[in-house]
Amino acid sequence: MYADLSLERFMEGLKKRNPGESEFHQAVFEVAASVIPYIQDNPRYRDAAILQRMTEPDRTIVFRVVWEDDDGNIRVNRGYRVQFNNAIGPYKGGLRFHPSVNLSILKFLGFEQTFKNSLTTLPMGAGKGGADFNPKGKSDREVMRFCQSFMTELWTHIGADVDIPAGDIGVGAREISYMFGQYKRLAKEFTGVLTGKALEFGGSLIRTEATGYGNAFFMQEMLAHRGEGMKDKTCVVSGSGNVAIYCAEKIRQLGGKVVTLSDSSGFIHDPNGIDESKLEWVKDLKVKRRGRISEYAEMFGCEFHEGKPWGVPCDLAFPCATQNELCTEGVSQLIANGCMAVSEGANMPTTVEAIDMLAEAGVMYGPGKAANAGGVAVSGLEMTQNSIRLAWTAEELESRLEQIMVGIHRQCVQYGQEGDHVNYVKGANIAGFLKVADAMLAYGVI
Ligand SMILES: NC(=O)C1=CN([C@@H]2O[C@H](COP(=O)(O)OP(=O)(O)OC[C@H]3O[C@@H](n4cnc5c(N)ncnc54)[C@H](OP(=O)(O)O)[C@@H]3O)[C@@H](O)[C@H]2O)C=CC1
Ligand SMILES: O=C(O)CCC(=O)C(=O)O
């Protein structure tokens, strides 16, 4: 029935079934382009319609979230959980609170999560959720009331062996704590139903750092594969949230020099490098005071510019803010300045056309589903620790994280080697696909 499976026909069908979901189309296109040729060579996946099944979420839950602001106004938001695929473990993936959140964005994120979680080698399926709620400018009490209302609706759909949400944009330790407290109250049970929890109630050391650290480890592996290292490399990092901050921290520890950070208002350029004490100041600014990155320029006497940081000369680039933040214009600047490699901390930060340009220019490119898998990997380790009711040390966890990132790099090389270079997109997509596809084949037609 699917003997004539072609990328064009597949994408045509997908767009027809999911109209207007441009981010979801983009994420599927990127995977299908490398996986369809593999499926054609391995017809058991084609005949079982595995890719068609993998691109349809198991289910999508959409709900109203009503809460009261500090002035007594009743506010209404929309909440979601997309339970994408549980072939290799319970649904697992973050929650995003941002005004741009819609079904297209959550489906792209849930789809990517399927491959990412498979690459970690841990038993985790894929899900993603969130709400079009904007935590910016809200008081702690407002955020608490929103989180409690959100969880009041979500809690019956999740569970420690069913679906385990975590953080993403706009959801950090504060939000996870409010949601965990409400889950515990409603379910009358204390289980590891969320990850990214505080240490006092079942959280894991290194989870806060994991995505950013993992991204720096992945870059280190790509460089080592070419006989290079991080030492003395000038690095451009975008974002100034959880992923960006800890990516910058690990880059510095590995000997690189980070010269930019950004937020949605613009970027700072500090040619002297963002050292440890400046980074501690940024953590306080972003996590406690919830300020803007422009304040860094005032504090440390450097430049602040509107726009994105890709025009700043660098050896290495780390997009760590959001989807489609690195377009053809930014990639042209990176290439013109001699950038050697891009490693994605964010999910799908580089557009399809920009990825093609990087490949043509021979710039190494680590896609997010491989390079930022460290966060969900340590979430998986948090689940393990919750199950055995033990807490591992930071050293143990960081070493496991590094080994997982080395293993992901190895899988990319195994499936992505093309002549004398590695196609990391192809490698990550095929390696991630195989484990999930084989599990789905084993289950029969469900
Ligand atoms: N947290 C995790 O463990 C993981 C996160 N990721 C991905 O990493 C990325 C960053 O997440 P995280 O650091 O957790 O989120 P945070 O909310 O902690 O930080 C997000 C950062 O990105 C900036 N940003 C958000 N939206 C935009 C936009 N439209 N344009 C420009 N800048 C923007 C924010 O700036 P501002 O404050 O101005 O909005 C902020 O600096 C996301 O793509 C996420 O999906 C991937 C794997 C795991
Ligand atoms: O830790 C998790 O479960 C989720 C991390 C995440 O949302 C992601 O990998 O994009």
Task: Offer a few descriptive terms.
nucleotide binding; 446 residues; glutamate dehydrogenase (NADP+) activity; single chain; five-stranded mixed sheet; Rossmann fold; Glu/Leu/Phe/Val/Trp_DH; alpha/beta; binds NADPH dihydro-nicotinamide-adenine-dinucleotide phosphate; binds 2-oxoglutaric acid
Summarize this structure briefly.
With 446 residues, this protein is an alpha/beta fold. Helix content is 49%, strand content 16%. The chain has 3 domains: 48 residues, no CATH class; 132 residues, Leucine Dehydrogenase, chain A, domain 1 (Rossmann fold, 3-Layer(aba) Sandwich), CATH 3.40.50.10860; 163 residues, Rossmann fold, CATH 3.40.50.720.
Notes on the structure:
The chain starts with 6 loop residues before the first helix and ends with a helix. 49% of the residues lie in helices and 16% in strands. By secondary structure, it is an alpha/beta fold. The protein is globular, with a radius of gyration of 21 Å. A 7-stranded mixed β-sheet has the order 9-8-7-6-10-11-12, with helices on both faces. Strands 1-2-4-3-5 form a 5-stranded mixed β-sheet, sandwiched between helices. It has a two-stranded antiparallel ribbon with strand order 13-14. The structure holds NADPH dihydro-nicotinamide-adenine-dinucleotide phosphate (NDP) and 2-oxoglutaric acid. NADPH dihydro-nicotinamide-adenine-dinucleotide phosphate (NDP) is lined by residues 167-170, 211, 239-244, 263-265, 320-322, 325, 345-347, 372, 375.
